[in-house]
Amino acid sequence: MIGKNRIAVRLTVFVLFLLVMAIVLATFKTVIASDGSTDTYTFSFGWGVGGSNPGQFNRPVGIAVDSNGNVFVTDTIDRVQKFTSDGAYLTQWGNTGSGNGQFSSPSGLAFDNNGNIYVADSGNARIQKFDSTGKYLAQWGTRGSGNGQFSSPQGVAVDGNGNVFVIDQYNNRVQEFTSAGAFISAWGSNGKGAGQFSYPVGIAVDSTGYVYVVDSSNSRVQKFGSDGTYITSWGYSGFGNGTFASPQWAGIDKNNNVYVSDFSGSVQKFTPNGTFLTTFGSYGSGNGQFNDPAGVAVDNVGNVYVVDNFNNRVQEFVPSSSPSSSSTSIATPAITSSPTPFGSSPSPIVTYTPFSSPSSSSSQPSSTPSLSSSASPTASGTPQNPVSNGSNLWLYIVALIAVVLVVVLAVIVLRRRNKTIGQTSPASTTMAVVAPGSSEGSSTSKENLPVCSNYVFISHVERDGNVALKIAEGLGSAGFGTWYYERDSLPGESYLVQTKKAIEDSQAVVLIISPNSLSSRQITVEVVRAHEAGKPFIPLLLGITHLEFQNRQPEWREAIGASASIIIPEKDVTPIIPRIVAGLNRLNIKKESYGDR
Predict the structure, then answer these.
(1) How far is CA 20 from CA 14, 382, 396, 447, in A?
(2) In 10 A of CB 58, how many CB atoms?
(3) pTM of the model
(4) What's the pLDDT score for residue 414?
(5) Distance, CA of 509 to CA of 468 (rounded, Å)
(6) Helix or strand (DSSP H, E) at 529
(7) Cα(468)–Cα(460) distance, integer angstroms
(8) Do the strands 508-513 and 455-459 form a parallel or antiparallel pair, or are they unpaired?
(9) pLDDT (tens digit per residue) in 479-521
(10) Secondary structure of residue 126 in the 3-state scheme
């Protein structure tokens, strides 16, 4: 018996070795893209840290690259910053306000063929037009749902004729304008059908005039003709290649391939018809990783620039065939002179202090190209190189066989061990659970595990976690069950999936509104999901006035409706707990009960 067990263990180790080698080889595989280049992207460099100084970012969102390779980025400090292609700060314009050249939460931006730049001034419900130096030229749009009006304009794209396409997010539509702002047409409505949208975000136009819309809450990309005629769509909710957790923004390269950023921490590349080509990036803060990737832009040589929203930086990725694909570290610009004024030629002297995140041991994230894309035709109808497909197929076969053998051998070993030491009766298995209002050390039978079926979801950012904890404790003492991420999330499963289900199963949402949460895309997603699910809100203001909240996030205000807000005292949240409880009672929210959900 012992000898057979040793043989089984050795075989298991050997098969595991084969599996690891197959995964390593598969990680470095490449496929041939529709433009004939190797379709693997490598982290090149990045720049930016959190802050309000020139060259720093505070939740950057949109990005665009001009014909000279200069990079333009918007952030929530209500400005546009301009950089060279290697991240050197050049100039900036804009400040908070509603006047000409001022912004309130600017988002998407795009260039026309004359070098003019169009910026979606989301909080002011308008589009502003500037020349390449940042000089204000024109604007159009007011808040509303009529033609030429907006409710949270987001992505902007310009076609070869100079027509401007704008995502009108909360109206769930796309609007088209002339370069002077004259309304041309609009299409789209709220829904899941072809040509309908659910909180779209990004938009891109290719060289032939096709329009690509990132339909975020429907987890897909839709393709239209320039007149709004629906062509096709791709994607669905998931975490694999060609699927999306929450797609955000889009970019187009010179071959009309489409790049889509996803809230899960990746950027995926597709052909113009939606065939998956490759993906790069993962969740994190290391080189090549993302924490809420936002805007995507591709320059004339195929380098991809990605806004890394919560990491307050921009990262550049280069095709593996590019001669400039040398790996470096994220650079922190140290500005040694004041910003360049509009129209002046000298640039400030910028020095770089490279740093590497301790969580990243490599500056080259692996990509995971789809096997099926290797055999698909290109946009021009020319078959791709079949050698790539054949040379990678055996890697998948080896990996699959290895997994099957590991499972079989593991079962054999476990059965032999159980014969020796005996099996533990399942009926005797218990597990510790912590329920609202119970002590941490209590235990209960796994078969009768209590689950709270009536609870209040507490939406907040991590920085406001202590306040969320005190609110949860106060509501728990009053008999209400609560759910908030730090305490109730489970390891392994995606937090996007967990928060979505928690919101759907909740009775109401307590929304902590603070300067931190107003710039959080995750909280915006939670507000949207709660609104779509018809959940009542109890908004709490932390370190912010009601007027400031309305000005900075009018879209949240629309989603929340007429719900009265409560101001959280600076020193202690305890005094307002009775008011929250009274609000929940008035909404007829049930107190906690236990049973199988």
Answers:
(1) 10, 35, 12, 37
(2) 14
(3) 0.62
(4) 60
(5) 12
(6) helix 521-532
(7) 7
(8) parallel
(9) 889 998 888 888 766 677 788 888 988 999 999 998 888 878 7
(10) strand
